[in-house]
Amino acid sequence: MSWDKRKAKRVRFEREYRATLVGSDGAWRRDCIILDISETGARLSMEESPDVLKTREFFLLFSMTGPVFRRCELVRLAGTEVGVRFKTSRTVRA
After folding, report:
1. Which of helix, strand or coil describes residue 50?
2. Residue 7's pLDDT is what?
3. pTM for this model (two decimals)
4. Is 89 left (phi over 0), alpha (psi -120 to 50) or beta?
5. pLDDT tens-digit profile of 6-58?
6. Which numeric CATH code is attached to 12-86?
7. C-alpha distance from residue 46 to each of 31, 39, 67 (Å)
8. CA–CA distance from 13 to each of 6, 51, 77, 78 (Å)?
């Protein structure tokens, strides 16, 4: 699937919007830049190696000063660009 064929309406930022990916167990952190975002997911650019994303589930922290985050799952990995889907109670699998 091409990045431009995504169905959800996307918001692109005029300025660089930095965020942090954190492992669901807190064992790792990676800085990233949010390239675009929607209600259902986001496209990120990783500054470091995305190798830790093999876990497939992690948190995207939007703020370093408070608890603003979304639980995510890896959808696509293309070099340093990462596609994530935001998990909701409807998408969480037992």
Report:
1. helix
2. 64
3. 0.78
4. alpha
5. 566 788 888 889 999 999 888 889 999 999 999 899 999 998 888 878 888 89
6. 2.40.10.220
7. 7, 21, 21
8. 17, 26, 21, 20
Give the gyration radius of the chain's Cα atoms: 13
Query: Which position has the token pair 């909701």?
Result: 88
- All structural domains of the chain with their residue ranges: 12-86
Strands 81-86 and 69-78: antiparallel
Which residue's entry shows tokens 């167990």?
A: 25
Full DSSP string of 3-38: GGG--S--EEEEEEEEEEEEETTSS-EEEEEEEEE-
